Amino acid sequence: MDLADYIAFHKENKEKSCDLVEYLYYLMDNHGLSAPELYNKANLSRQLYSSIISGKSKPSLPTLIKIAFALRLNTHECKLLLKKTSYTLSSSSTYSLIVRYCIENGIYDLNALNRYLSAYGYEDRLIY
Predict the structure, then answer these.
(1) pLDDT tens digits in sequence order for the chain, 128 residues long
(2) What DSSP string runs through 69-117?
(3) Could you tell me which residues come within 8 angstroms of residue 78 by beta carbon, excluding any fewer than 6 positions away?
């Protein structure tokens, strides 16, 4: 495969080749949530949501985790969402493993996530 074929092959996959905003709209459509439903369910202000969608600000990891939980993303979708902003849930991080555990086990309750985080000493990194 030459370089042109390689680039064309990877650009065919819209899910991987689109930017954060396009992917967020794609996820909202696939999971049946409107913008107000998403930002309310994720406990985001309308202003923060607007800033993210307009590209004026890069969302933090906790904000993306709230969005992932609100959309009830599977592991693959969450990984791609985080990758769009250069974040990852690393196997070397207990914090990340706790978040991954919740997603992989369908635990989309932030209160449950925060209880797990507190139990492992991450009181300073709780997500609200």
Answers:
(1) 888 888 777 667 666 668 999 999 999 999 999 999 999 999 999 999 999 999 999 999 999 999 999 999 999 999 999 999 999 999 999 999 999 999 999 999 999 999 999 999 999 999 98
(2) HHHT--HHHHHHHHHTTT----TT-HHHHHHHHHHHTT---HHHHHHHH
(3) 68, 89, 103
Residue 96 tokens, joined? 């990340």
Amino acid at 77: E
Nearest to 77 by CA among 30, 37, 42: 30
In the block, residue with structure tokens 């974040």: 87
Query: Going from the N-terminus, what domains does the chain have, and what CATH number goes with each?
Result: 3-125 (1.10.260)
